[in-house]
């Protein structure tokens, strides 16, 4: 079924469509959230929260504003970041700043993912260091292009082209170009 | 900007990341509607990002969906495998509750019925006891009467009917030792209202009547045996019908019965 139709049914509170979308994106959101909070239990809880928010706020999504994936990715990142700003979380977790998603990938034991452990480690080695940071900021952390350009201390145009090259590299490794 | 330049600019990667402004997002959206090539490129970028982010997931969250639905109060398919069992158990539970409740009501009704039955039986028992007591009382009275009649010291005096009511008869049993006299008035008609029988002791020479009393409870007394005191040396007894309350002297034309004491006894 095509995505546009699926999303429309989801917005009409079709539970089957909801489940399909969940299966499409839940693991991805779980990864993004876990990368931010670095706690398995919290990540599980927040992943559920994200889909609960998505269901309750489905009417606010509009294709004009962006991809459905992007919409739910935003909810996931905001939910996780809100959590890291809460007092209880701050007291228990410290020093998350220096970590990148590649740390997770290097220590990955998740056999459900689309690559086996060896493939993931090869992938991390191959992915250029300059790409890791920019992918982290734009996809995992939700920086805008302006914020990313400030964080990386490079012009917006450079951010765009470098990111494009990095994603191309990623696509090659994942074979999603065909 | 043509399609290729648009794709090469890197805007689509930022579009998927959600890093563009609202205006840029709409621009890309319009481009997607026009160009299948741009759409295809977006889908590929999106697929690669979905894969990458999924790789950072420490576990497969598929099983969490049940919990999401539960938290949203959605259609109960929380644990699909166990559901029929739960339903079955719920139905059984309800059925059992209803049966139990019905059983309790039945028991309660039974208890009420039994209590009512016991009450009825107790009332009947009380009535029977009263009857029995009455019978006992009658028996005692009858025995007493019998013992009086049989007593050799008690003098029996028959009183025969007189002109006013020839069918009338009565009997007196005089216990001289105890100054008591018993009149059996079964042979007298029931007196009309406002009238009572008055019993007289008579001495014959000269003829002197002395009232022993009136029979005020004639109708009430079932065995029609009345006890009176007699301290006199009576020679005969007479019974007259008098106005209620009795008279000073007997109304002779209302003399019902009369009998003399046998001198040889």
What's the gist of this structure?
The complex is a heterodimer of chains A (178) and B (265). With 178 residues, chain A is mainly α. Chain A contains ten helices and no strands.
Low-confidence stretches of chain B: 77-82
- Return the average pLDDT of chain B rounded to an integer: 88
Number of domains of chain A: 2
Query: What is the end-to-end distance of chain A?
Result: 20 Å
Question: Whole-number radius of gyration of chain B?
Answer: 59 Å
Number of strands of chain A: 0
Radius of gyration of chain A: 17 Å
Q: If you had to describe this structure to a student in words, what would you say it looks like?
A:
The complex is a heterodimer of chains A (178) and B (265). The mean pLDDT of chain A is 85. Chain A has 178 residues and is an all-alpha fold. Chain A has 10 helices and no strands. Chain A has helices at 3-11, 15-37, 40-56, 68-85, 87-92, 101-106, 117-126, 129-140, 145-152, 156-174. Chain A has 2 domains: 3-92, Orthogonal Bundle (Rna Polymerase Sigma Factor, Chain: A), CATH 1.10.1740; 101-174, Winged helix-like DNA-binding domain superfamily/Winged helix DNA-binding domain (Arc Repressor Mutant, subunit A), CATH 1.10.10.10. In chain A, helix 9 (145-152) packs across helix 10. The longest helix of chain A has 23 residues, at 15-37. The relative contact order of chain A is 0.09. Chain B has 265 residues and is α+β, with helices and mostly antiparallel strands. Among the domains of chain B are: 3-58, no CATH class; 154-260, Immunoglobulin-like (Sandwich). Chain B has helices at residues 3-8, 11-17, 22-34, 36-55, 64-72, 83-150, and strands at residues 154-161, 169-175, 180-184, 195-203, 208-215, 225-229, 236-243, 255-260. An 8-stranded antiparallel sheet of chain B has the order 5-4-7-8-1-2-3-6. In chain B, a hairpin with a 7-residue loop joins strand 1 and strand 2. In chain B, helix 2 packs across helix 4 and helix 3 packs across helix 4 (36-55). The interface between A and B is large, with 65 and 46 residues.
